[in-house]
Amino acid sequence: MPTPGAPLRRRHVAMIVAAVYLCGLGVILLWPDHLDRHAGAAYAILYALFPGATAETMDFGLNVVLFAPFGVLLSALLRGHPWRLLGVAWVVPLLVEIFQGVFLPGRTSSALDVAANTVGGVVGAVATVVVRRFLTRSHTRDRS
Q1: How many CB atoms lie within 10 A of CB 62?
Q2: Is the pLDDT of residue 1 over 80?
């Protein structure tokens, strides 16, 4: 039997996790220099896990993964508004890349990053909807 305050506690934990993610995302996106400059060991592990990957495909994939949680958050905030979600999932990375190109000379601005980040946001949102539907159906079946 669930405890009376469990949903409220889950919501607080979710808000804290979301805040930590968004702060981390902000640091990663707005840091004046490339953060992966000294990540040789981490990249060596990734290339060992994905031996056919190139620098470009690795960068694209990591950008997708970086923005998937953003899509999860958008899915929670814009529930029932898929076009708005898609718009925000595209506009936010676009603005970040413009900001990087104009104000952060140590960073490179890339249309491919906008595409990868948008794909990541959409993947996170779609995954959230799929999981939500699966859990709703499972919960409905358990009741009958």
Answers
A1: 16
A2: no
